[in-house]
Design brief:
This protein has two helices and seven strands. With 99 residues, it is of the alpha+beta class. The chain has one domain: Roll (Ubiquitin-like (UB roll)). The structure holds FE2/S2 (inorganic) cluster (FES). FE2/S2 (inorganic) cluster (FES) binds next to loops.
Length: 99
């Protein structure tokens, strides 16, 4: 059962393999979105780019980047992912709301 660790919240949750990172994050009450994006996001269909997280460790334990991520994260570091497009396959550590 994969573990997701969150920074800066210092929280840790356990999920079923292939869980969508966004779904697990919201379900466990971890703040994923910046202020306005809490109300104004696309609902997890890869269109708004507001669910971005920085993967601090375990990038190899995530699904491949989707086409939506390639478009939305074109000018962002390779460690950034869209939580709504990312399946968790193993243990990871992520930073929510990266700068
Ligand atoms: S919630 Fe809109 S891109 Fe992830």
């Amino acid at each position: 059962m994969p573990t997701i660790r969150y920074e800066p919240d210092a929280k840790e949750i356990f999920v079923v393999e292939e869980t969508i990172l966004r779904d697990a994050t919201i379900k466990n009450g971890i703040d994923l979105y910046k202020t306005f994006a809490k109300l104004m996001n696309c609902g997890g269909v890869g269109q708004c780019g507001t669910c971005v997280v920085e993967v601090l460790s375990g990038a190899e334990s995530l699904s491949e980047r989707t086409d939506a991520e390639e478009r939305k994260l074109r000018n962002k570091p390779a460690t950034y992912r869209l939580a709504c497009q990312t399946l968790v396959l193993g243990d990871i550590t992520v930073r929510t709301k990266p700068k």
